[in-house]
Amino acid sequence: MIRRRLLRVLGVAVAAATLAVPAAASPDTGNEAGGADVTLTRFFSLISGAKGERRDRETLKGLFRSDAQFMYARRVSEAEASAATLASPDSFIDVLVPMYERAGRRERPRWMHGDTKGDLAVIRVQYEWWDEGGKPIQGMKFVTLVRDGGAWKIAFMAWQDDAPTAEAPEAPAAASRTAAKQLPR
Fold it and tell me: What are 67-84's pLDDT values in tens digits?
């Protein structure tokens, strides 16, 4: 009885530890991101920080394929169609990262849900962000990653923030709670 409980506790601990470790060449994992979620967790960590804190641009740039694309969609008003802005990783790093540094931007995933097939992963991320002293705003990111030389690289990322008063959507039943570093508010 005690031995069974001990084995169960150890099994849970090992399972939790493996969620935080990227798989070097993980097989197809059905409804899990198979290590690609670790790349996204690293992305959130690298863009977040205190006001005036410089972000590690080179490490951040290393998370993306050289031909990656970003798309930020925003709703101007209920009567108008959404507007979308496309950018490269260099544009993202050159324009948005300095803004994040000035504002003390913090961003973290609330949940991730993804699928993989071979060297392709598609992950949906419910996230929240806030600037130093500000209120959190929810949003959704849709990210495509490609395994490139054994590492998961971001190939495409599209996102849209919700209105500040919007309720956050519930996580899908199979969504993984990430092992993301919990950032202070």
Answer: 999 999 887 666 676 788
CA 155/CA 160 separation, integer angstroms = 17
> Is residue 24 helix, strand or coil?
coil
Sheet holding 64-75, edge to edge: 82-87, 64-75, 151-161, 137-148, 120-130, 106-117
CA distances, 12 to each of 3, 8, 18, 171, 180 (Å): 14, 6, 10, 22, 18
Residues 6+ apart with CB under 8 A from 149: none
For 98, the enclosing helix (H) or strand (E) is helix 97-103
Cα–Cα distances in angstroms (integers) from residue 109 to residues 90, 140, 182, in the given order = 23, 9, 9
Residues in the chain: 185
All residues at 6 or more sequence positions from 111 whose CB lies less than 8 Å from its CB, including other chains: 125, 126, 171, 172, 175, 176, 177, 178
Task: State the DSSP string of 39-95.
Answer: HHHHHHHHH---TTPPP-HHHHHTTEEEEEEEEEEEE--TTS-EEEEEE-HHHIIII
3-state secondary structure of 19: helix
Gap between the Cα atoms of 64 and 52, Å rounded:
24
pLDDT digits (tens, 9 = 90+) for 116-158: 999 999 999 999 999 999 989 999 999 999 999 889 999 999 9
